Amino acid sequence: MTYLQLVNAVLRKLREDEVATTSDSDYSRLIGDFVNDAKRLVEDTWDWTGLRHTYSITTTAGDGLYSLADFGTRSKILYVHNETRNTEVLRDSLQNIRRANLSSNSQSGPILSYAIDGLDVNGDAQIRLYRTPDSIETLSVYAVRRTDDLTSDSSEVSVPTSPIVQWAYSYALRERGETGGQSASEQAIFAQQELSNAVAFDAGLSPDETIWTTV
What we know:
- This protein has helices at 3-13, 26-45, 94-102, 161-176, 184-203, and strands at 52-58, 65-67, 76-82, 87-91, 113-119, 125-130, 138-144.
- The chain has 215 residues and is α+β, with helices and mostly antiparallel strands.
- It has two domains: 3-47 and 159-206; 51-144, no CATH class.
């Protein structure tokens, strides 16, 4: 569903007229804010299949720091693979990597580990590598990339839309009071159930990620 369709879905539940654009009125803009609040809640609840994204990094000899475009601060790295050497790049703490890079035994060579090292000028996360690459290699960074707020009427979401509509409706009920005999607290319970169901269905696509194993 698009941003406009989500807003209109909430307006219908409120027994309000649909709008041609999300900026049609002060109230439609308010509902748009509730939709974005709900979208953030839904996106942050689970590592949704629809938010999975693969970054491709081509290393440069002597450079151990790379930005992840549009990664923002709400996203998450799941796994890093060195395509050139067909090896896993392990997650480590930034403290360990900095200590290793500053030690007298520090050397460039095959990449062994990575850590998030602050944000770049665009507000996107940077990934620090150890060792510092000594050649051109290709890394695949598998991540969950959560998105910015919706602004355009035609913007689409990549997560289940029913929980977004139900949570936005709940926020709207809380703002305006009871509608059609349903309270905001009752709607919040229904919205949480919708979200729980959506998570369960999506988790079924990656069952290995929800199974704990001993090492």
